[in-house]
Amino acid sequence: MSRTRLSAQQRHEQLVTAAVAAFARGGYAGTTTDQVARLAGVSQPYVIRLFGTKQALFLAAATHATDRVEQRFRDAAAEQADLQSLGAAYDDLLAEREFITVLLHGFAAGAHPAIGPTVRACFGRIYRTVRELTGVDQDEACGFLAVGMLLTVLGAMRIVGPDAVAHEPWMTELVGGLDLKRAFPGPDGT
Length: 190
Hints:
single chain; 190 residues; 10 helices; globular
């Protein structure tokens, strides 16, 4: 049986995909390059040869997750350029828990001197993309991102999303209190 040889770009993408999965599970501190290598089906020295360090691999995973959010927003805006459309696109991303969890791990590591600049740039890129695509003002963009971050945290805790846990009363109250129409208004404000 012959194995298909992957191009360097395909191998890079395979490793970043494995890194997203591994870092989503263990965070930056709790994940090793060996775990990523095993998920990707390659050797640990190969991971280091391509990325140099675990830190560079983590930053590639966080950047990839940000790219995914940005692309989903751009696709949604191509259909309808408003916060409601972008909010629906983000709601769909909540089902892809690994992406949002990697972002959350990245933001949590944002105080790290080598990680912080990249993850802050990722967050800034999402903010600028929201403003660019929808034309909303600073306050509306901040409100949109605030609700998005709450949904990210709730998604990471499995309070919202396709595999949500059974709700305790406080969870039902919190999720029920999210007025997504108000947070993500359509072009006519509704």
